[in-house]
C-alpha cells in the first residue's frame, strides 16, 4: 500500500492510502473527499478533473483520445489537467501530489 | 394536448424501453416522456459506440445497437413517445389517476407512473461564470430555438463537440460567428471540422483558441466576453454567447414529487419496485434498495416485476395468470414468428 497527497478545494492537503490498480478518482472518492465522479469512472462525465503537480506530470501515461475529448467539457483547464478516473495508481507514483479542480 | 393511457413512463433509457415490452405482455399501454431528442438514455447520449459486454446472451453489443433493438422490441406494443420535454408536475386526479404535465404543456393521464429516469434528465453543462444566470435566455443560450434573432449579429460559440461545430457552420451563413475552443483538435465529426476550417479559410467565420473566463454587460445584454489563452486575457465584443459544453445529468423535478429519497435515489421495495407512493414505481438507475447494482440487467428484472403490480392496479377485477412468452400465440402472431 502506497500513499498520495491530495489538496482539496479549501487548500487542505490529505494523505491518502493508495492501492495499486485503483484509479486516482477511486482513491479520492473512497477516502470521502469531494469528487463527483458522476459516471463512476467511464470517462463519460468529466467530473473527476484533477491537476497533477508539475514535477509528476510527465511521469503519467499519455492521455487516450476519450480523455482529451472529455476534458473539453470541463472548465478551468490547465496544462496539468487530467481525469482522475483514467490513471491507475502504480508504485512509482508513491507520494504524488494532486489537486481537485474547482467544480 | 391531453392523452390517456394505462402507464406513464418517465425516461426512455434502456430500462424505460424494456418496461414498455414487459407492460405490453400484460396488455398495458404506455406513454413515455424524455428530455432528450432521442430514446436510449445514457446508452444513446453518453456512449453509443462503446460495446457493452454484460447483456445476457450478447457477447458484445454497442450501446446504440442495444437501444435500437430495445426500441424495435418495444414498438410491438405501440408506445407513444413525448421527446424533447421534461416531466414536470405530477398530480392526482379526482378519479384517483395520475396527471403528468410536461415542460411543453402536454398532459398525460395514467393509472400508474413508472419513473425510469436514470441518473436524471440531461441538461446543458453551464460554464461556472459569475452572474451567467442574469444573461441566460437573453443573450446566453444553451440551445438555439429561434434563429431569426441571431441574423446579422455577433455570435460567440464555445466548445469542440458536434453541437458547437454544427451551429458554427449553420449560423455562419447568417451572422458574424466566432468559435472559441480550448485546443485546435475537436471531438466533433471530422466532416464538420473540415467544413468549419474551410469557412474559416474563406473568412466566413473566426476560430480562436482559448478558454471562456467572464462576461461583461448589463441588464442581460452582453457587451464583452473575456477569454484566456496561456497567460493572457483577451476581450471580444459579442451580442450572443452560445456555450456548448455537453450535457450532464440532474435529478430535476423528480425531487419535488413527494417520494422517499435516499441520496437523490428513490427508495423502492424489491417485490414490486414501488415507491413510497402507491402506484408510482421506480426502476433502473434511479432507484435504491439493499444490494442495488446500477446495471442495465438489473433494470430489466425490475421492469418485469413492476409490470405485474401495474397490471393489478389497472385491472383490479382480473386475475393475473403467469405465462411464458413461448406459449403466447397472440404475441407470436404480432411479431410474426
Ligand atoms: C460510459 C458508461 C458505460 C456503461 N457501461 C455499462 C455496462 O457495460 N453494462 C451495464 O449494465 N451498464 C453500463 N452503464 C450503465 C447503464 O448505462 C445504466 O445503468 C443505464 O443507462 C440505466 O438505464 P435507465 O433507463 O435507468 O436510465 P438512463 O439511461 O439514465 O435514462 C434515463 C432517461 O430519463 C430521462 N429523464 C430523467 N428525468 C426526466 C424527466 N423528469 N423528464 C423527462 N425525462 C427525464 C433522461 O433524459 C434519460 O434519457 C454504463 C454507463 C456509462 C455512462
Ligand atoms: S468519473 Fe466520469 S469521467 Fe472520470
Can you write the helix and strand succession of chain B as a string? EEHEHEEHEEEEEEEHEHEEEEEEEEEEHH
Low-confidence stretches of chain A: none
Could you tell me the radius of gyration of chain A in angstroms? Answer: 12 Å
Broad CATH class of chain A: Alpha Beta
Strand content of chain A: 15-25%
Q: Which sheet architecture does the biggest sheet of chain B show? A: 5 strands, parallel
Name given to the CATH homologous superfamily of the largest domain in chain B = FAD/NAD(P)-binding domain
End-to-end span of chain B in angstroms? 37 Å
What global shape of chain A is seen?
A: globular
Secondary-structure class of chain B: alpha/beta
Average pLDDT, all residues of chain B: 95
Which fold name corresponds to the CATH topology of the largest domain in chain B? FAD/NAD(P)-binding domain
CATH topology assignment of chain A: Ubiquitin-like (UB roll)
Structural domain count of chain A: 1
| Helical coverage of chain A, percent range | 10-25%
Mass-distribution shape of chain B: elongated
Helix share bin of chain B: 10-25%
Largest interface: A-B, 18 and 22 residues
Tally of strands of chain A: 5
CATH class of the largest domain in chain B: Alpha Beta
Task: Give an account of the 3D structure.
The complex is a heterodimer of chains A (103) and B (337). Chain A is globular. Helices cover 17% and strands 22% of the residues of chain A. Chain A is of the alpha+beta class. Chain B is α/β, with parallel strands linked by helices. Chain B has two domains: 210 residues, 3-Layer(bba) Sandwich (FAD/NAD(P)-binding domain); 120 residues, FAD/NAD(P)-binding domain. Chain B contains seven helices and 23 strands. The radius of gyration of chain B is 23 Å and the shape is elongated. The site of FE2/S2 (inorganic) cluster has 15 residues of chain A, from loops.
Amino acid at each position: 500500500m502506497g500513499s498520495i497527497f491530495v489538496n482539496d478545494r479549501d487548500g487542505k492537503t490529505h494523505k491518502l492510502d493508495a492501492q495499486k490498480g485503483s484509479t486516482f478518482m477511486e482513491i479520492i472518492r473512497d477516502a470521502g473527499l469531494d469528487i463527483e465522479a458522476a459516471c463512476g469512472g467511464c470517462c463519460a462525465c468529466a467530473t473527476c478533473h484533477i491537476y497533477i503537480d508539475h514535477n509528476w506530470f510527465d511521469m503519467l501515461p499519455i492521455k487516450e483520445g476519450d480523455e482529451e475529448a472529455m476534458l473539453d467539457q470541463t472548465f478551468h483547464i490547465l496544462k496539468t489537467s487530467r481525469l482522475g478516473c483514467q490513471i491507475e495508481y502504480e508504485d512509482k507514483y508513491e507520494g504524488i501530489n494532486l489537486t481537485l479542480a474547482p467544480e | 394536448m391531453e392523452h390517456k393511457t394505462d402507464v406513464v413512463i418517465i425516461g426512455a433509457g434502456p430500462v424505460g424501453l424494456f418496461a414498455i415490452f414487459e407492460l405490453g405482455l400484460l396488455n398495458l399501454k404506455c406513454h413515455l416522456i424524455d428530455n432528450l431528442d432521442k430514446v436510449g438514455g445514457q446508452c444513446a447520449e453518453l456512449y453509443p459506440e462503446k460495446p457493452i459486454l454484460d447483456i445476457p446472451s450478447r457477447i458484445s453489443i454497442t450501446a446504440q445497437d442495444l437501444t435500437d433493438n430495445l426500441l424495435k422490441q418495444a414498438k410491438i406494443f405501440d408506445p407513444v413517445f413525448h421527446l424533447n420535454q421534461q416531466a414536470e408536475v405530477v398530480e392526482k386526479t379526482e378519479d384517483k389517476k395520475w396527471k403528468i404535465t410536461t415542460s411543453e404543456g402536454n398532459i398525460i393521464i395514467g393509472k400508474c407512473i413508472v419513473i425510469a429516469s436514470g441518473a436524471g434528465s440531461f441538461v446543458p453543462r453551464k460554464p461556472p461564470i459569475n452572474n451567467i444566470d442574469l444573461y441566460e435566455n437573453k443573450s446566453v443560450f444553451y440551445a438555439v430555438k429561434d434563429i431569426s434573432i441571431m441574423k446579422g449579429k455577433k455570435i460567440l460559440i464555445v466548445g469542440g463537440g458536434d453541437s458547437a461545430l454544427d451551429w458554427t457552420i449553420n449560423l455562419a451563413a447568417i451572422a458574424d460567428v466566432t468559435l472559441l475552443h480550448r485546443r485546435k483538435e475537436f471531438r466533433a465529426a471530422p466532416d464538420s471540422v473540415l467544413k468549419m476550417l474551410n469557412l474559416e479559410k474563406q473568412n466566413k467565420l473566426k476560430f480562436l483558441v482559448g478558454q471562456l473566463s467572464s462576461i461583461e454587460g448589463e441588464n442581460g445584454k452582453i457587451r464583452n466576453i473575456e477569454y484566456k489563452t496561456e497567460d493572457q486575457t483577451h476581450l471580444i465584443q459579442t451580442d450572443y454567447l452560445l456555450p456548448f459544453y455537453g450535457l450532464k445529468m440532474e435529478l430535476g423535478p423528480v425531487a419535488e414529487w413527494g417520494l422517499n429519497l435516499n441520496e437523490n435515489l428513490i427508495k423502492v421495495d424489491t417485490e414490486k419496485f414501488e415507491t413510497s407512493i402507491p402506484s408510482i414505481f421506480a426502476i433502473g438507475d434511479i432507484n435504491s434498495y439493499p444490494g442495488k447494482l446500477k446495471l442495465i440487467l438489473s433494470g430489466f428484472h425490475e421492469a418485469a416485476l413492476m409490470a405485474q403490480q401495474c397490471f393489478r392496479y389497472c385491472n383490479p377485477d382480473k386475475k393475473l395468470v403467469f405465462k411464458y412468452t413461448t406459449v403466447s400465440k397472440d404475441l407470436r402472431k404480432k411479431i410474426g414468428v
